[in-house]
């Protein structure tokens, strides 16, 4: 186990996944004003830069030259990547720190690549031989004979030995039990900490395993703020015993992937006719619904993988329901909530004959890039980036989350189909309505509820539709009566929320 004493708390973060370093640096002052505590950034280490030869080989997974997932195929730990070079990375971290926003880095420490011969940093390599990282065959489980499968891949996700030691979708699995590999990885992470980074998302954490994760964490220096670095492990649920997310909570925080599925099932169900979801059951969400403890979880509605998995998780494509879920998670208070914001997924045109289903659906699409694969500056006006983290209703709920921090959920209203409302102590109240505009033959999806708000009498401005203005509210106004009760109309697939400081009289 690792000690979490003095560990950096992430607070509310935004995952600006595959935003380039220049754009993140420019965004950080705005993130701070919006109330975000930190930003998570895509893997900055050098990675495979595919060539036409790889794109033409169906075995490499895509006919697209530069799919988004190139960055998950480490070649060495130089900091030249699709998102920018080392100088730009350093500038970004300093600019964000100066703005009061902490930077968390997605780190690929379980494996190197599974394809290609050249990298964004201009290095060349071959299978199990990465001169610039200092890795040879002795640094990988498969050539060492430590993976029991014939082809070196993971075929049984219930086997600890296979999950830890075999190659995850062809990616060459590092022998993280050796002092040499641990030292190389710790040097990389310590360099990032030296630049001012505050912690890490550990890609494929489940495949590194607790013992090696703990040992690597033990080699890390403190952050510039004198804290132990934040450490959030990616552990997909579904495997038994030691492979479960619960079994990794003694090695760090874990990503809230099972929670993401519960959120999808509540908001959307499985999408058949008549399956419209029912969010009222989310009154019990978190440890009470079998998830990892709040204090050990990086919670989210979606991330870069799940946004591409429409049948099991919500994503940007789900529009109002996705935003409603994001607003609800920020109000609920489970885990350290993370808002996701990246490029819009579009089905590419003009694909070659050998394109596969994931190429055609847009699942493998490249972020907006130049011909060399270098990612373009993010823009919130060209339609290529979602910029969901900037939306008024999301920013308002980030502020709500910060303002009600530590206050228990009270006055839960969950007796009505697809509606959920609660107060957070006596500091804030929020109500959510997941009913569509016309679920039942033309009926309005709007819902009017009478609830106990936990707040004192007065007129309050709803922060989802607007907020306080010089006189009155720019959006909806809610009147709380002397007994704390209020009658509130929740728009279809919408929310109403206010805190004690949104009172106008
Ligand atoms: C992760 N967590 O454990 C990332 O969140 C996930 O996005 C990564 O997969 C995975 N682990 C490895 O870091 C992504 C794509 C894969 C892609 C992989 C490596 O979802 O599709 O694999 O990144 O780029 C691709 C091809 C495979 C091929 C492999 C190796 O799709 O067909 O076998 O590359 O060449
Ligand atoms: Ca491994």
TrEMBL record:
GO molecular function: alpha-amylase activity; metal ion binding
Cofactor dependency: Ca(2+)
SMART domains: Aamy (SM00642), Aamy_C (SM00632)
Protein name as catalogued: Alpha-amylase
Catalytic activity, reaction form: Endohydrolysis of (1->4)-alpha-D-glucosidic linkages in polysaccharides containing three or more (1->4)-alpha-linked D-glucose units
Annotated source species: Microlunatus sagamiharensis
GO BP: any one term: carbohydrate metabolic process
Lineage: Bacteria, Bacillati, Actinomycetota, Actinomycetes, Propionibacteriales
Family: Belongs to the glycosyl hydrolase 13 family.
Alpha-amylase C-terminal domain span: 410-503
Pfam families: Alpha-amylase, Alpha-amylase_C
Glycosyl hydrolase family 13 catalytic domain ranges (all copies): 11-401
InterPro entries: A-amylase/branching_C (IPR006048), A-amylase_C (IPR031319), Alpha_amylase (IPR006046), GH (IPR017853), GH13_cat_dom (IPR006047), Glyco_hydro_b (IPR013780)
Keywords in alphabetical order: Calcium, Carbohydrate metabolism, Glycosidase, Hydrolase, Metal-binding, Signal
Positions of region (Disordered): 350-373
EC number: 3.2.1.1
């Amino acid at each position: 186990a690792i000690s979490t004493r003095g560990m950096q708390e992430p607070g509310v973060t935004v995952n600006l996944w595959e935003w380039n370093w220049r754009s993140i640096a420019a965004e950080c002052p705005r993130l701070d004003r919006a109330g975000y505590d930190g930003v998570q950034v895509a893997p900055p280490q050098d990675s495979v830069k595919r060539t036409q030869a790889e794109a033409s080989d169906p075995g490499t997974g895509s006919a697209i030259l530069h799919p988004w997932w190139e960055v998950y195929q480490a070649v060495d730990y130089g900091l030249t990547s699709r998102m920018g070079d080392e100088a730009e990375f350093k500038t970004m971290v300093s600019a964000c720190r100066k703005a009061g926003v902490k930077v968390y880095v997605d780190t690929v420490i379980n494996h190197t690549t599974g394809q290609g011969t050249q990298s964004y940093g201009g290095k060349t390599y071959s299978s199990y031989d990465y001169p610039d990282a200092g890795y040879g065959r002795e640094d990988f489980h498969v050539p060492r004979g430590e993976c029991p499968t014939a082809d070196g891949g993971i075929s049984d996700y219930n086997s600890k030995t296979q999950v830890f030691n075999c190659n995850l979708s062809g990616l060459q699995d590092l022998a993280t039990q050796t002092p040499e590999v641990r030292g190389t990885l710790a040097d990389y992470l310590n360099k990032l900490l030296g630049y001012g980074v505050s912690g890490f998302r550990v890609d494929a954490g489940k495949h590194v395993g607790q013992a090696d994760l703990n040992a690597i964490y033990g080699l890390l220096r403190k952050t510039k703020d004198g804290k132990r670095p934040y450490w959030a492990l990616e552990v997909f649920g579904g495997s038994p015993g030691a492979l479960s997310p619960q079994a990794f909570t003694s090695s760090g925080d874990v990503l809230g992937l099972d929670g993401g599925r519960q959120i999808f099932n509540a908001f959307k169900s499985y999408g058949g006719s008549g399956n419209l979801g029912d969010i009222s059951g989310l009154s019990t969400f978190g440890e009470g619904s079998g998830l990892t403890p709040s204090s050990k979880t990086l919670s989210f509605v979606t991330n870069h993988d799940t946004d591409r998995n429409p049948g099991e998780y919500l994503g940007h494509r789900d529009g109002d329901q996705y935003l409603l879920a994001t607003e609800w998670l920020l109000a609920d208070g489970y885990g350290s909530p993370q808002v996701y914001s990246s490029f819009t997924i579009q089905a590419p045109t003009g694909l070659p004959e050998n394109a596969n289903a994931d190429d055609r659906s847009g699942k493998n699409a490249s972020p907006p890039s130049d011909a060399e694969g270098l990612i373009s500056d993010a823009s919130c006006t060209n339609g290529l980036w979602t910029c969901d983290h900037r939306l008024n209703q999301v920013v308002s709920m980030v502020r709500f989350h910060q303002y009600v921090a530590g206050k228990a959920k009270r006055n839960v209203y969950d007796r009505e189909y697809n509606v959920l409302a609660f107060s957070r102590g006596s500091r804030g109240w929020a109500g959510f309505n997941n009913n569509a505009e016309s679920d039942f033959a033309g009926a309005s999806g709007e819902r009017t509820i009478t609830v106990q708000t936990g707040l004192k009498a007065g007129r309050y401005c709803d922060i989802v539709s607007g907020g306080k203005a010089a006189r009155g509210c720019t959006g909806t106004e809610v009147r709380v009566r002397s007994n704390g009760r209020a009658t509130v109309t929740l728009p279809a697939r919408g929310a109403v929320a206010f805190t004690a400081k949104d009172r106008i009289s």
